[in-house]
Design a protein that fits this description.
Chitinase A, domain 3, Lipocalin, mainly beta, 7-stranded antiparallel β-sheet
């Protein structure tokens, strides 16, 4: 990066967090991964929870594209079992169009205990929280600490056991989508499949969305995704949501990124290069960057969309970054899309020495 471009970037306050160089994090061994686990002892709930945990894929149907559903057990204060879920288009795994929390519980109605699945949304947490959480089902132990009071209940589905399946429906619940004011949902769970059907009802009783509007049920089948989280010394977690192509970035290479940064705690977006008037971040590895980037970027390819979950010690530490409204000891989440990568070729080998000219004519 030339001096003029660096000065221009530094003049924009939003660029400060990424460009600010921090001292290297102290070397640390990889800590053991402690995955969240449900606290309930209700065996029926544990069975239903196991059926809904994992990764599932739905083929395209009607106007509905191919979809993926990913869920993982997380810890939520006030819930004895909770699953983070996100639904993505299969061709855009870096964006989720539906996210939230599933929770199984018992509710007694007229003296009869019912098994219910409650769906929560993240509306109360923060406007950018869901966007910041995309892909974190790959590392559920890094999901931020939330309480049930921060979640917004959306709908309850009453489930009944039918042999090796759980099925039921719930609602109507208030909604404001596609002209519909009420939502009716149904779930059908088994060991290898999940079926979710949502139907939106307009005030006149017609369907705003759902099967009658050419939006059939989402029939998901369990599959093993290729995505995985990579854990680095110091606590950094990275995972690629979109694979790139070509050479892999190494020291000396010129790279450029479109990026967005959020606070993990509430999804506050403190920085983005995708803002109008901004340019991709350009630098040569290793850059004048926080350690989470210096450690998390090498090996990336052009076209890769990578998430970096950065602990305080590899970000802004105890002091934070007041200019960007980053508090002290804050975990950060960045999405980094590599839009340019130029290899820095090694110097050519030295030329062989020129042959020594003969000192005289050969003897006759």
């Amino acid at each position: 990066m030339n001096a003029r471009l660096l000065a221009a970037l530094c003049s924009v306050w939003l660029s400060g967090p990424v460009l600010a160089l921090q001292p290297p994090a102290a070397p640390a061994d990889l800590p053991p991964v402690v995955k969240p686990a449900p606290a309930t002892t209700d065996q029926e709930i544990l069975d239903a929870l196991a059926m809904l945990t994992g990764s599932f894929k739905a083929e395209a149907a009607g106007e509905q594209p191919a979809l993926t559903l990913h869920t993982a057990v997380i810890s939520i204060e006030g819930l004895d079992n909770a699953l983070y879920f996100e639904i993505n288009r299969a061709d855009t795994p870096q964006a989720a169009f539906n996210q939230g929390v599933f929770h199984f519980f018992r509710q007694t109605i007229d003296g009869k205990p019912e098994l219910r699945l409650r769906v929560f949304t993240f509306e109360r947490v923060g406007a950018g929280f869901g966007e910041a959480m995309v892909g974190l089902w790959l590392a559920p132990d890094a999901f931020p600490a939330l309480t049930v009071s921060q979640l917004t209940p959306m709908i309850d589905v009453v489930l009944t056991r039918q042999g090796d399946r759980f099925a039921g429906s719930g609602g109507p619940a208030p909604i404001n989508r596609a002209g519909a004011t009420l939502l009716v949902s149904s779930f059908d769970l088994s060991r290898d499949s999940v079926r979710i059907s949502d139907r939106g009802v307009k005030p006149d009783g017609s369907e705003g969305f759902g099967p009658a509007a050419n939006q059939p049920a989402m029939n998901f089948t369990r599959f093993q995704p290729a995505l995985q989280a990579v854990r680095h010394p110091g606590g950094l977690i990275t995972y690629d949501l979109v694979a790139g192509e070509g050479i892999r970035a190494d020291n000396g290479d010129a790279v450029a990124f479109q990026y967005t940064g959020w606070l993990r705690a509430d999804g506050f977006r403190f920085d983005t290069s995708r803002q109008e008037g901004r340019q991709p971040l350009q630098f040569s590895l290793p850059g004048q960057l926080i350690q989470g980037w210096n450690v998390g970027v090498p090996g990336i390819q052009k076209g890769t969309v990578r998430r970096l979950v950065i602990p305080p010690g590899m970000g802004y530490g105890e002091s934070g970054q007041p200019r960007a409204r980053i508090p002290g000891n804050a975990w950060l989440v960045f999405e980094a899309e590599c839009v340019y990568l130029k290899d820095n070729p090694p110097p050519p080998p030295p030329e062989p020495p020129a042959p020594v000219p003969p000192t005289g004519a050969p003897e006759k």
